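Journal club prep, notes for RB
We'll compare a predicted complex against what the paper describes. Inputs for the fe (ii) ion case:
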Amino acid sequence: MLQGANKPFHDYVHVSDGTVDRVIFSDQAVYDMEMERIFARAWNFMCHESQIPKVGDFFLTFIGEESVIATRDKKGELQVLLNSCRHRGNAVCRAESGNARSFLCTYHGWTFGLDGKLIGVPGYKDFYHEQLNKEEWGLIPAGKVQSYKGFVFATMDPEAPDLEDYLGPVGRLGLDLVAERGDEVVVEGIQKSQIGCNWKLAVDNLFDWYHVGISHASAMMTGFGRGRNLPPTIAERTGPGTSDPHAHRVLLGDYGHAIGGPRITPELRAMMAAAGDDPDVTLDERWRDKPAAKAALGAAGADVRGHPNIFPNLWIASNGTQLSLRLPKGPTTTEIWWFTIVDKNLTEEQRRARVFRANHTFGPAGMLEQDDGENWDQSTRQTHGVVARRFPLHFGMNLGHGAPQSIDGGPTFIDAAINEHGQFWTYRAWADWMDAENWAALKRDHVRTPLTPA
Ligand code: FES
Ligand SMILES: [Fe+2]
């Protein structure tokens, strides 16, 4: 039961004191509305083009809780199709990825082309008397499918703005922070696991550098990233993953995109330069000096080391080796997917080292997410109680501290100590999405990024 379905969703997010009501983290009616007003409307990350390079390649993923097939049709065009036969609704694709010439429904045998068109119906002549209009009974296509620098997104809502407009400067920068590193491709095999938490708490955590020293204390003590004789990463050189807690940079974008975390300080830059041929530094940080990367990142992005989130649920890990989707599976269950990214020009040894480090950082076998998952599970449980729900959660760290700035018309950012600006911005945007009845209302009414020119 939604406690307060008759009030605006902005009433759950309290700008005056930086608090958020707990009801939004486990209420079924709130969750159902999120499926409609956020996931069925937003641009959702599907896959990287390197996962479906050839005609007939496909990758199965989700928009909200709905299974969709991302594929490449005979013309080489990207397609995203609802994975549900138009006859009785059966899934027409069961494999997580692969290559197909068409999608054959296993129930009665309707067959759909790679572009979703209905191309085969058993008994079409004898039982349907050729009166079924196949043009009308193809798979349901996404409203729009577009890619940005190889990252494929789809929206079910044809009224959505084009992808680049949706991403805006902050969303684009988030993707540039991976795309500009080199010839990036996604490694085969997506790591998937479920955690008993609300999807928003898993998103919220990606901006959270406050928890690192506590939640991950034991992981840091083990020196977990240093297998295979790898030298320490920049993060490991400079402390328990946090660098200087007083030198953080947050970028806030329209529609809820944000980037938050440590900044590359002049001291850190000098340390990177002095690291010489250290392969980790070469792999992880030198790319920033390439002219194309410099141009894409701009002045504000050049020093960003924090994690971007593309609203609603795509986390781009700031080390550039992993992407994560926080897929909702009910109000108190989230499926976490991890994609590992490498430069296709790496030597086999470098590639293995990079995959090894990724596997041991985030994901079900990583040292960090197990710590996090336990906390999110408990946080979610404590949003059920009738008493607990009377008391909101606090997101006010450093609220009001750190002025928004912009360099030469670039994206807005705030330099401050560790803070919760990224998290709270995301909840404010969440309320915008939930209160807006359609894209026209969302475009008109959403909270603008500070300093955005009118
Ligand atoms: S459900 Fe697909 S052919 Fe009948
Ligand atoms: Fe964590």
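Talking point for the session: Confidence is low (pLDDT under 50) at residues 227-231.
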